[in-house]
What does this fold into?
Amino acid sequence: MIEIKNLKKSFGPKNVLNGVNLSVKEGEVTTVIGSSGTGKSTLIKCIIRLLEPDAGQIIVKGKDITHIKDELELANLRRNFGYLFQEGALFDSLTVGENVTFGLKYLTKTPPSQYAKIAREKLALVGLKGIENLKPSELSGGMKKRVSLARVLATEPKVILYDEPTSGLDPIMSQIINELILDLKKKLGVTSIVITHDMRSAFEISDTLVMLYGGKVELAAKAADFKNTQNPYVKQFIEGSSIGPIRPF
Amino acid sequence: MFKTLGKLILDFLNQLGQASEMVASCIFWLMRAPLEFKQTVLQTTRIGVDSFAVATMTSLFTGMVLALQAGTTMRNILSEPLYIGTIVGFSLVRELGPVLTAFVVAGRAGAAITAEIGTMKVTEQIDALHTLGTNPIRYLVIPRIIAFMIAIPVLTLCANFSGMFGGYLVSTQSLAVSSWVYYEDITTFLGVDDVMHGFIKSFCFAFMIAVVCCYKGLNTYGGAEGVGRATTKAVVASMVLILVMDYFLTAILQSIGI
It folds into this structure.
C-alpha cells in the first residue's frame, strides 16, 4: 500500500530522516516507535505531503507522490488520508460540531443536512456526547484529542496516520481508542500508521512495529518478533532502560 | 557592513518573492474553486465593525484640527477664515481619509488577522486545513483580501464624512463660518476625480495590508513569541508601505489627471 524508499529530510543542518525504508501493508496497523526527535512525526508528515522530502521515494498504491507540486493533485491524494495531530489542531473559531464535519464539505459529497447526525455519531464513537456546540477552548486536552479523532473518522479515510493517539488520555480512554483502531481495521479495512510511546498500546494494536533510530529504521518486525528481539537499541527502548546504546543527551 | 546590507536586501527580496507567490496562489484558487462566501462575509463584517469607531473618531478629530489650523492661518493672512470646507474636504478625501483609515485598520484588524493566522500556524491548524482537503490560501487568505478590499473603502467613505463633519463643527462653532458657506466650499471645488483619487488609494492600501498581514501570519514560527513578533512586523511593514505607496500612487494618479 505505502512504500518508502531511502527517504531523507533535513531541517537546516539537522538530518532528521537519513534514508528510511519502510513498507506498510494494506489493512494493517503499523506502529512507529523511537525516542523523541528521531523523525517519527516528520515521517508521517512526508507521507501525507505536509512536508516535501529532500530525497527518496514515497509510493502510495503504485503512484510516486514524492514530488507532487500541483495543489489539486495534492488535495486528491489527501482524500484517502486522515491525520490525527499530536495536539489535536482543532480550529479555535469553530464549534466542536463544525470541527468534526469540516472535512465533509471538501473531501466528500455528503449533503449538509447530514452533518449534525454524522457529528453526533463520530463523537459517540470516541466517547463524547452533547458537546457539539462547545468551542475547543472549553474542552480538556484529552477531549480535544478525541474530537480531533472524531474529525478524522468523519471523512472515512482509507489510511489514518495517528500522531500519539493516546497521549494525554486516561488508561480507560486509551483502551477505547486502541479498540477503535482495531475495529476500523477489522470492519472497514483501514490502514493505520501509529506513532506512540505507549508500548502496551503498541503491542496490542500493531501488526508490524518499526523502530526509528538515528534517522533510519533500526528494526521493522511483527509484534511477536519485536518483543523477542536481541537488538540492543530496541530492547533498551522497549524496557525503558536508561542503560544501553541509546543516549538521550 | 556590506554583508549586513546584502543580507537585508536578500531577505527583503526573498519575502517579496514569497508574498508574490502567495498572490499568484490566490489567483489560482479564485479561478479553480468557489469563493468561501460565508468566511468572506464574516471577515468583512468583523473588519468593518472592529475598525468603524476608531476610524471615524480619528477622522472626526483630524477634520476638527484641520479646520482650526486652516481657519486660524487664513484669519492671520487674509483676515477671515476662507475656504475652510475646501481645505478640509480636499485633505480628507484625497489624502488623510484613505491614509488614516488604512493606518487604523492595519493596526487593529491587520494585527488581529496576523495573530489569528499565526496562532493557527504554530498550533498545526494550517496543516490540519491541508489534511482536510482545503488550502489555507483558499480558506483564509482570499476571504480576508476581499474583506479588506470591501471594508477599507467603505470605512474611508465613513471617515471622510466624519472628518468633514468635524471640520463643520469647528468652522461653524469656533470660526463663525456659516453652514452654507462651508457646504459650498466643499461641493464647489471637490470633484468626482478627487473622490476617485481617494478610492483608488484605499483599494490599493487594502490589498497591500491584507497580503502583508496574511503573509506574515502564514510564515509565523516559534510559538507564542513568534506570533507576537509576526504581528508587530506585519503592522510596522503595513504602515511603512502605506506611506511609501501613498507617495507613488499620488504621483501616478496626478500624472494621469486623477
Summary: The longest helix of chain B spans residues 37-78.
